[in-house]
Amino acid sequence: AVVSTQSTGAVPAFNAAKSSKKTSNPLIEKRSKNFSIGGDIQPKRDLRRFVKWPKYIRLQRQRKTLYQRLKVPPSVNQFTQTLDKQTATNLFKLLKKYKPETAAEKKDRLKSMADSGKTEAGKKPTVVKFGLNHVTALVEKKKAQLVVIAHDVDPIELVVWMPALCRKMNIPYCIVKGKARLGQVVHKKTAAVLAITSVKAEDKNALNNLVSSVTTNYNDRFDEIRKTWGGGK
User: Fold this and answer.
1) What is the pTM of this model?
2) In 80-191, where does DSSP find H-type helix?
3) CA distances from 65 to 10, 73, 197 (A)
Protein backbone atom coordinates (compact mmCIF):
# COMPACT_ATOMS: atom_id res chain seq x y z
CA ALA A 1 0.00 0.00 0.00
CA VAL A 2 1.24 3.43 -0.91
CA VAL A 3 1.16 6.00 1.90
CA SER A 4 0.57 9.56 0.76
CA THR A 5 3.22 11.98 1.96
CA GLN A 6 1.15 15.08 1.19
CA SER A 7 0.27 16.96 4.40
CA THR A 8 -3.28 18.05 4.83
CA GLY A 9 -3.89 21.77 5.46
CA ALA A 10 -4.16 23.09 9.05
CA VAL A 11 -7.67 23.02 10.50
CA PRO A 12 -8.92 26.63 10.87
CA ALA A 13 -9.52 27.73 14.47
CA PHE A 14 -13.16 28.16 15.55
CA ASN A 15 -13.97 31.85 15.60
CA ALA A 16 -16.57 32.40 18.34
CA ALA A 17 -16.93 36.12 17.58
CA LYS A 18 -17.84 35.50 13.94
CA SER A 19 -20.18 32.65 14.69
CA SER A 20 -22.10 34.60 17.39
CA LYS A 21 -22.32 37.81 15.37
CA LYS A 22 -25.93 38.87 15.00
CA THR A 23 -27.17 39.86 11.62
CA SER A 24 -28.53 43.38 11.77
CA ASN A 25 -31.86 44.24 10.25
CA PRO A 26 -31.19 46.35 7.14
CA LEU A 27 -34.54 48.11 7.58
CA ILE A 28 -33.58 49.57 10.98
CA GLU A 29 -30.96 52.29 10.82
CA LYS A 30 -28.57 52.51 13.79
CA ARG A 31 -28.52 56.00 15.24
CA SER A 32 -25.83 56.52 17.86
CA LYS A 33 -26.50 59.42 20.23
CA ASN A 34 -24.30 62.47 20.28
CA PHE A 35 -24.14 64.14 23.71
CA SER A 36 -21.97 67.07 22.68
CA ILE A 37 -23.19 70.69 22.87
CA GLY A 38 -26.28 71.12 20.73
CA GLY A 39 -26.69 67.37 20.41
CA ASP A 40 -28.98 64.89 22.14
CA ILE A 41 -30.51 65.53 25.56
CA GLN A 42 -28.40 64.19 28.43
CA PRO A 43 -29.87 61.28 30.42
CA LYS A 44 -31.36 61.99 33.87
CA ARG A 45 -28.78 61.76 36.65
CA ASP A 46 -29.04 61.94 40.42
CA LEU A 47 -27.35 65.28 41.17
CA ARG A 48 -28.34 65.58 44.85
CA ARG A 49 -24.76 64.89 45.92
CA PHE A 50 -23.57 67.94 43.96
CA VAL A 51 -26.29 70.35 45.13
CA LYS A 52 -25.20 73.20 47.38
CA TRP A 53 -27.91 72.81 50.00
CA PRO A 54 -29.04 75.81 52.08
CA LYS A 55 -27.10 76.38 55.29
CA TYR A 56 -29.99 75.42 57.60
CA ILE A 57 -30.32 72.03 55.88
CA ARG A 58 -26.56 71.39 56.18
CA LEU A 59 -26.72 72.30 59.88
CA GLN A 60 -29.67 69.94 60.42
CA ARG A 61 -27.78 67.05 58.84
CA GLN A 62 -24.54 67.80 60.67
CA ARG A 63 -26.38 68.08 64.00
CA LYS A 64 -28.12 64.75 63.41
CA THR A 65 -24.79 63.06 62.64
CA LEU A 66 -23.14 64.57 65.72
CA TYR A 67 -26.03 63.50 67.95
CA GLN A 68 -25.62 59.94 66.66
CA ARG A 69 -21.84 59.79 67.12
CA LEU A 70 -21.23 61.81 70.29
CA LYS A 71 -22.47 60.92 73.75
CA VAL A 72 -25.54 63.11 74.37
CA PRO A 73 -26.29 64.05 78.01
CA PRO A 74 -29.69 62.99 79.42
CA SER A 75 -30.98 66.58 79.70
CA VAL A 76 -30.64 66.97 75.90
CA ASN A 77 -31.42 63.34 75.00
CA GLN A 78 -34.88 63.56 76.65
CA PHE A 79 -36.07 65.66 73.69
CA THR A 80 -35.74 62.64 71.39
CA GLN A 81 -38.47 60.84 73.37
CA THR A 82 -41.53 62.44 71.82
CA LEU A 83 -45.20 61.67 72.31
CA ASP A 84 -46.62 58.72 70.31
CA LYS A 85 -48.65 59.49 67.19
CA GLN A 86 -52.11 58.58 68.53
CA THR A 87 -51.77 60.61 71.74
CA ALA A 88 -50.26 63.55 69.82
CA THR A 89 -53.23 63.52 67.41
CA ASN A 90 -55.68 63.69 70.32
CA LEU A 91 -53.63 66.45 71.94
CA PHE A 92 -53.63 68.66 68.84
CA LYS A 93 -57.37 68.09 68.34
CA LEU A 94 -57.88 69.52 71.82
CA LEU A 95 -55.42 72.38 71.28
CA LYS A 96 -57.14 73.46 68.05
CA LYS A 97 -60.41 73.94 69.93
CA TYR A 98 -58.73 76.59 72.09
CA LYS A 99 -56.83 78.58 69.47
CA PRO A 100 -56.35 82.23 70.43
CA GLU A 101 -58.18 84.72 68.20
CA THR A 102 -56.36 86.28 65.26
CA ALA A 103 -55.80 90.02 64.86
CA ALA A 104 -58.68 90.22 62.35
CA GLU A 105 -61.07 88.35 64.67
CA LYS A 106 -60.12 90.64 67.55
CA LYS A 107 -60.75 93.71 65.39
CA ASP A 108 -64.21 92.42 64.41
CA ARG A 109 -65.05 91.64 68.05
CA LEU A 110 -64.03 95.09 69.24
CA LYS A 111 -65.94 96.71 66.37
CA SER A 112 -69.11 94.76 67.20
CA MET A 113 -68.71 95.73 70.87
CA ALA A 114 -68.35 99.38 69.90
CA ASP A 115 -71.41 99.22 67.62
CA SER A 116 -73.53 97.61 70.34
CA GLY A 117 -72.33 100.13 72.93
CA LYS A 118 -70.81 97.51 75.25
CA THR A 119 -67.71 98.73 77.05
CA GLU A 120 -67.15 95.97 79.61
CA ALA A 121 -64.49 93.41 78.78
CA GLY A 122 -66.64 90.48 79.88
CA LYS A 123 -65.39 87.03 80.82
CA LYS A 124 -61.92 86.11 79.55
CA PRO A 125 -62.02 83.52 76.73
CA THR A 126 -60.52 80.09 77.40
CA VAL A 127 -57.52 79.79 75.07
CA VAL A 128 -54.13 78.10 74.87
CA LYS A 129 -51.32 80.09 76.51
CA PHE A 130 -48.00 80.50 74.72
CA GLY A 131 -44.68 82.30 75.12
CA LEU A 132 -41.80 80.98 77.18
CA ASN A 133 -41.94 83.60 79.95
CA HIS A 134 -45.74 83.44 80.19
CA VAL A 135 -45.83 79.64 80.41
CA THR A 136 -42.99 79.65 82.96
CA ALA A 137 -44.97 82.05 85.16
CA LEU A 138 -48.08 79.84 84.86
CA VAL A 139 -46.07 76.75 85.86
CA GLU A 140 -44.53 78.53 88.85
CA LYS A 141 -48.00 79.67 90.00
CA LYS A 142 -49.34 76.12 89.38
CA LYS A 143 -52.03 77.46 87.05
CA ALA A 144 -51.05 75.27 84.07
CA GLN A 145 -52.85 71.92 83.77
CA LEU A 146 -50.72 70.60 80.90
CA VAL A 147 -47.49 71.89 79.34
CA VAL A 148 -46.52 70.98 75.76
CA ILE A 149 -42.84 71.40 74.76
CA ALA A 150 -41.43 71.27 71.20
CA HIS A 151 -38.61 68.78 70.60
CA ASP A 152 -36.64 70.91 68.10
CA VAL A 153 -36.20 74.26 69.84
CA ASP A 154 -32.95 75.94 68.82
CA PRO A 155 -30.98 76.76 70.92
CA ILE A 156 -32.07 73.87 73.14
CA GLU A 157 -30.99 75.80 76.27
CA LEU A 158 -34.23 77.81 76.01
CA VAL A 159 -36.32 74.84 77.14
CA VAL A 160 -33.81 72.30 78.49
CA TRP A 161 -34.81 73.18 82.08
CA MET A 162 -38.60 73.17 81.50
CA PRO A 163 -39.19 69.41 82.15
CA ALA A 164 -37.34 69.67 85.50
CA LEU A 165 -39.44 72.70 86.50
CA CYS A 166 -42.70 70.91 85.58
CA ARG A 167 -41.60 67.85 87.55
CA LYS A 168 -40.74 69.99 90.58
CA MET A 169 -44.08 71.85 90.47
CA ASN A 170 -45.90 68.52 89.82
CA ILE A 171 -47.41 69.71 86.51
CA PRO A 172 -47.90 67.21 83.64
CA TYR A 173 -45.70 67.91 80.62
CA CYS A 174 -45.00 66.25 77.29
CA ILE A 175 -42.58 66.67 74.38
CA VAL A 176 -43.98 66.70 70.84
CA LYS A 177 -42.72 67.12 67.30
CA GLY A 178 -42.19 70.11 66.43
CA LYS A 179 -42.13 73.84 67.07
CA ALA A 180 -43.75 74.72 63.70
CA ARG A 181 -46.76 72.53 64.49
CA LEU A 182 -47.16 74.24 67.87
CA GLY A 183 -46.81 77.61 66.13
CA GLN A 184 -49.77 76.81 63.85
CA VAL A 185 -52.01 76.46 66.90
CA VAL A 186 -51.27 80.01 68.07
CA HIS A 187 -50.98 81.69 64.62
CA LYS A 188 -47.18 82.02 64.77
CA LYS A 189 -44.34 80.58 62.71
CA THR A 190 -43.03 78.60 65.67
CA ALA A 191 -43.77 78.16 69.37
CA ALA A 192 -41.40 76.61 71.93
CA VAL A 193 -44.04 75.79 74.59
CA LEU A 194 -47.80 75.87 75.03
CA ALA A 195 -49.87 75.51 78.19
CA ILE A 196 -53.50 74.58 78.84
CA THR A 197 -54.87 76.35 81.91
CA SER A 198 -58.57 75.44 81.66
CA VAL A 199 -61.03 73.77 79.31
CA LYS A 200 -64.77 73.69 78.83
CA ALA A 201 -66.88 71.10 80.66
CA GLU A 202 -67.33 68.92 77.55
CA ASP A 203 -63.53 68.62 77.06
CA LYS A 204 -62.57 67.81 80.66
CA ASN A 205 -62.71 64.06 80.03
CA ALA A 206 -60.39 64.35 77.00
CA LEU A 207 -57.95 66.49 79.01
CA ASN A 208 -57.97 64.03 81.93
CA ASN A 209 -57.16 61.14 79.56
CA LEU A 210 -54.27 63.11 78.07
CA VAL A 211 -52.95 64.11 81.50
CA SER A 212 -52.98 60.50 82.75
CA SER A 213 -51.19 59.26 79.62
CA VAL A 214 -48.61 62.05 79.74
CA THR A 215 -47.97 61.61 83.47
CA THR A 216 -47.25 57.91 82.97
CA ASN A 217 -44.86 58.53 80.06
CA TYR A 218 -43.00 61.58 81.36
CA ASN A 219 -43.54 62.69 84.97
CA ASP A 220 -43.48 59.18 86.48
CA ARG A 221 -40.43 58.19 84.40
CA PHE A 222 -38.43 61.33 85.23
CA ASP A 223 -35.79 59.47 87.27
CA GLU A 224 -35.26 56.98 84.45
CA ILE A 225 -35.16 59.71 81.77
CA ARG A 226 -32.56 61.80 83.61
CA LYS A 227 -30.16 58.83 83.69
CA THR A 228 -30.53 57.78 80.04
CA TRP A 229 -27.69 58.97 77.80
CA GLY A 230 -28.00 59.16 74.03
CA GLY A 231 -25.76 58.90 70.95
CA GLY A 232 -22.47 57.04 70.89
CA LYS A 233 -23.55 54.74 68.06
Assistant:
1) 0.72
2) 85-97, 103-116, 132-140, 162-168, 179-185
3) 70, 15, 38
